[in-house]
Hints:
This protein is α/β, with parallel strands linked by helices. It folds into two domains: about 5-90, 2-Layer Sandwich (GMP Synthetase, Chain A, domain 3); about 115-375, P-loop containing nucleotide triphosphate hydrolases (Rossmann fold, 3-Layer(aba) Sandwich), CATH 3.40.50. The chain has eleven helices and 15 strands. The protein has helices at about 5-15, 65-75, 95-105, 135-145, 165, 205-220, 240-245, 260-270, 305-315, 330-340, 355-375, and strands at about 35-45, 45-55, 80-90, 120-125, 150-155, 175, 180, 185, 190, 230-235, 250-255, 280-285, 290-295, 295-300, 325. An eight-stranded mixed β-sheet has the order 8-9-5-10-4-11-12-15, sandwiched between helices. Strands 1-2-3 form a three-stranded mixed β-sheet, with helices on one face. Helix 4 crosses helix 11 (about 355-375), helix 6 (about 205-220) packs parallel to helix 7 and helix 8 runs parallel beside helix 9 (about 305-315). The protein is elongated, with a radius of gyration of 24 Å.
Amino acid sequence: MDDRTALIETAVMDRLGHVIDPELGRSVTDLGMIAGVRAQQSGPGAYDVMVDVELTVPGCPLSAQISAQIEEAVASYPDADLTAHITVGSMDEGKLQALVSDLKAQRRENPFNKPGTKTRIFAVASGKGGVGKSSISANLAATFAALGYDTAAIDADIYGFSLPRLFGTHSQPTNLNGMLMPVTAWGVKLMSIGMFAGSDRAILWRGPRLQRSLEQFLADVWWGEPDVLILDLAPGTGDMAISVAQALPNAELVVVTTPQPSASDIAVRSGLVALQVPMHVRGVIENMSYFDHAGERLALFGVGGGERVSAQLTRALGYDVPLLAQLPLDPEVRETGEGGRPAVLNADGSLCDDAFGRTFADLARTLMRRGQAAAANGSTTRA
Length: 383
């Protein structure tokens, strides 16, 4: 091997250090996925570069994406014309086990309640079902991702899971020797009981098992370090809401209601959980606030529910719980969501530049900004 070839091999390996595994969020070199790099001159100023890649699992669905990143990294070398030739294999059992053990040792437990975590956690709650809580969770998560935030979402509504359908994913999480990789759809890392075999059957779990399911979603899944985690909670104030508060005391609660008193009165109870657990109620979202028809705005479910919830929680909790947004009743939102794409997104994954998209963009920015302002003022709420 001449000095020129050795220099190219070293430079390529350095460049591969910037290729990030989409699931693990770390470089392929740090993960030991590059088994070898060999350069061979193919012409004046031109070299073939053979890259041996060992993926964590055979047939990894992200193999093509990783290979494309490697090709781009090799081609970026400025001092010669390099052509990548990639051989893809998989790690042997010993190497994979060592990698998983290393990842688990770095985390050991729920990564979201450690001091210094950068992840903002928004738990979306409602007093009753049928108010569009899951649709709001899905669209809010998709909005954060479209705005450039590294975003994760957990379907904590164990009985009524719906995020897989709303994100149009039928994939199962990849199992790396007991560590799960979340499924990514529309830029959001997802985990739901609905992704596992037999999830179409009725689930009759209570207390301890419910809590364990949440602990597994938090501690047994490799999330990396997302900027935002959205939790779609089960309706009401039962076991799962308490489990979330215990596991994630830094979570910020967002209460969803509809305008009519039968929904808003119950929604207040979901916010009052904050009197018993260390969660801060960030604000209220009123869904199905109005229906635009033939130039007329119709209040099909009455008016004032969001304002009532906001006012009652502000009085009871002793701090401002604002009405963050009022969302329309729009059949297209339902149709698009049930078709597998959050309605806030265009078909290419970009944020819709319409009233619905702008409302969610403003909502996402407000949620992030309010937390930062609270921290600057010395509040106990996380920033």
